[in-house]
Amino acid sequence: MIRLHIPLVSKWDEEINLKVQGLQPHDLIDIMVSVKDDANITWKSYAIFQANEFGVVDPRVMAPLNGTYDGQEQMGLFWSMKAIGSSHSFQKKTVHPSRYRIEIKQNENTIVSQDVKRVLLSGTTCRQEVGGDGWTGTFFRPLSVERPPIIIVVGGSDGGLDETIAALLSNHGYATLALPYFQYKQLPKQLVEIPLEYFQDVITWIFHQEGINHKKMGIFGRSKGGELALLIASHFPEVRFVVSHVGGGIIFQGVGLKNFRKTSSWSLNGTPLAFAPLELLRPSQLWKYLKQKITRQPQVFVQLYQQAIQHLKDDHPSIIKVEHIKGPILLTSSTDDAVWPSRLMSEKVVKRLKLSGYQHFVQHVCFENAGHHIRPPYFPTTARQSQNVIYGGETVSDARASQKFWEELLLFLEKVTSSSSSKEYHESSADE
């Protein structure tokens, strides 16, 4: 009897064993996997295997003869999935479980099939929609941990509410707050002059929550949120550790105009913070923008940000005073980031901290050949663009980077929340 062995329910960042037994020795089979993302786009992968002499197929130790990935890859059927009828990256911002269909075929006939669930939120975590005067978010509290550390999680320039990373981190024993700051409910529609007081109000709310270790409060920011995370921590000493994921230590021009003029992404006390302007109205850049609008094709923006950085002196007020941060810092970047030069900006942060004699643990992890859209592991990495933005990278490098990112993040969080952080600098490059 042919049997498919796979957990019926598993956590999203958990490696799972998929094994087929009961085949005839050296039988050929197709394994096909399909799922729908939050945009209702269908994603599929496949792999053709030849059973061993015992009639077993085990992707963990066997390479497919053909398929959407190569080599021995335990989770290859998940990260190599390709979208049907879409070129955009896998859409997932909610914590709703994803239902995967696993089919085993021989001679184009399905011989075994099974539905499995991948969950972002475990049954031991409480999810609660919260808010205050002018702010809103989703709070995740692990019920099995007494007085857990608390992490504020902010997203990038795509806006809205993304609960995925906050939910996954809560499964590892951290209280988390997924916090949108524009393009969500009553929040501003554009990323311009977002007041830092908004985040100060959130910090105040956190300090009023019982059962949380307020002395171990940190912030995680992705992309533009990585810039924001460094900025918030430099202003509010209550934040004791920072993760800037493919972010940077420079305040850039806001994404949009205010009263038909350029302005900062952020403000304080009603005044826009100093910012590095982007030459969006240069003829060449304006033509790219108009062409993108006409053809509806996404763009590469990294050169725009590189040009802005070239004009900045080390004492330019748009450079975030990261030396004011009161705790350890984790920076991540990629060498093929097509959105902005995350590697260069992270290196500048490390250099500034060294020159200032920074006394806390600092780590920079750079992912070789990977792009900007590095998510937790096992998201499909075959499509690397949104409607407007090309992210860079390539399928295998992004998949490797996602696993390395998550591993380094969890190690960093364990280190800085379980004991005093090391007073040393540690800069590494992840090129696996």
TrEMBL record:
Gene3D superfamilies: Acyl-CoA thioester hydrolase/BAAT N-terminal domain, alpha/beta hydrolase
Domain BAAT/Acyl-CoA thioester hydrolase C-terminal: 194-417
GO terms assigned for molecular function: hydrolase activity
Keywords, alphabetical: Hydrolase
Domain Acyl-CoA thioester hydrolase/bile acid-CoA amino acid N-acetyltransferase: 13-130
One protein family per Pfam: BAAT_C
Family note: Belongs to the C/M/P thioester hydrolase family.
Descriptive protein name: Acyl-CoA thioester hydrolase/BAAT C-terminal domain-containing protein
Species annotation: Bacillus changyiensis
